[in-house]
Amino acid sequence: MEMKGELMLKFFLTFSLFFLLLTPMMAQDSSSVVIIEEPSINYPGKPLIMSLVLPGSGQYYNKSPMWKTASFLGVELGSIVAWDYFIKKAKTLRNEYWGFADSYWDLYTWYLFTENGPNGKIEHNGRQWTENDFRAMSNYEGTHHLLLHLSGNLAAQYGEFITSDSLGMISGYLDSDLVNVVRDRHFYENIGKYDQFVGGWSDANTDWYWEEKQLEDSTEIVIKTPLKADYLDQRFESNKMLDMAKFSITALLFNHVISGLEAVLTNQKQSREKQNPTTIETDVSLLYNPYNPGGVGGVALTINF
Q1: Per residue, what are the HEC states of 146-167?
Q2: 220 forms bridges with which residues in the sheet?
Q3: Rounded to an integer, what is the distance from CA 276 to the centroid of its chain?
Q4: Angstrom distance (rounded) from CA 21 to CA 210
């Protein structure tokens, strides 16, 4: 009887323990524990504006990996340094080819060449010289013109400024200080771009030549001299530096935009992750032990998260 009572007592205690553990789980609708943080207001516009102003700052605000902040800042600084370098280099090269033109292109030389032709020659490299073939460099009243500044009695008679189309009426004063060509941006472009002004280069009389440029349905003759070709190469290098400076500015602008978009997308992603609660699933069960008189070997607690 004493043994039976002891077994009944163990069975009762086991059943009570099982019921005690099972009752709270049965009383709940779910066996999950949900941890919910207090709701917070998210402002995606803040990292956007920060990155648009200073790339990388929006990433820093979002607490993104530091390599993102460093990358956008690096591109920003690199673009600014590159722009400054290319702009200064372009200006230096521009001043050099301006000085080159000032030394080797002359208004009076241009007039004489245009009026008389290349040193009285009638052919060059086996090609006959005719005004019809090379009419672009035999007429100073062309499609383009230079601006001339007059002084003294010429200014009183014709005005302070005239164009090169009127070169003939002041031809007797071209080798004086009363007539000066205005060396502005248009001047430095025209003397290198158009055949009309090739005669102003100091080597035009003896060393002019032409190159044939094939177009879609015709062949264009481009007249050059060694000095003009050198001048064009110098302008090309300067313009190439300006193109690189423009590319640096483009990279700078894209860096702002990409940094802003990345900051907004990351901010939105973090916001969605915060709104989804973290779920911890728990499970409590009894372990079976056949060697235990009550059949219970312990309690198992499982947590999945």
Answers
A1: CEEEECHHHHHHHCCEEEHHHH
A2: 213
A3: 39
A4: 103
Nearest to 113 by CA among 137, 130, 148, 144: 137
Q: What's the pLDDT tens digit per position in 127-183?
A: 666 655 566 677 778 788 999 999 999 999 989 999 988 888 888 888 888 999 999
Q: How far apart are CA 14 and CA 24, in angstroms?
A: 17
DSSP state of 38: P
Residue-wise pLDDT for 86-122, tens only, equals 999 999 999 999 999 999 999 999 998 888 876 655 5
**Orientation angle between helical segments 66-104 and 226-275, nearest 10 degrees:** 160
- pTM of full prediction above 0.70: no
The one-character DSSP state at 253 is H
d(CA 207, CA 124): 9
What's the maximum distance between 2 C-alpha atoms anywhere in the chain? 148
CA distances from 43 to 72, 266, 276 (A): 21, 12, 18
Which conformational region is residue 54 in: left (phi greater than 0), alpha (psi within -120 to 50 degrees), or beta? Answer: beta
Rounded CA-CA distance 72/24 in Å is: 54
- 92 and 242 in contact (C-beta within 8 Å)? no
First to last CA, the chain: 50
- Per DSSP, the chain holds a count of helices (H) and strands (E) of 9, 10
Please give the Cα distance from 267 to 250 (Å, whole number): 26
How far, in Å, CA of 42 to CA of 263, rounded? 13
The length of the chain is 305
Q: What 3-state class would DSSP assign to 103? A: helix
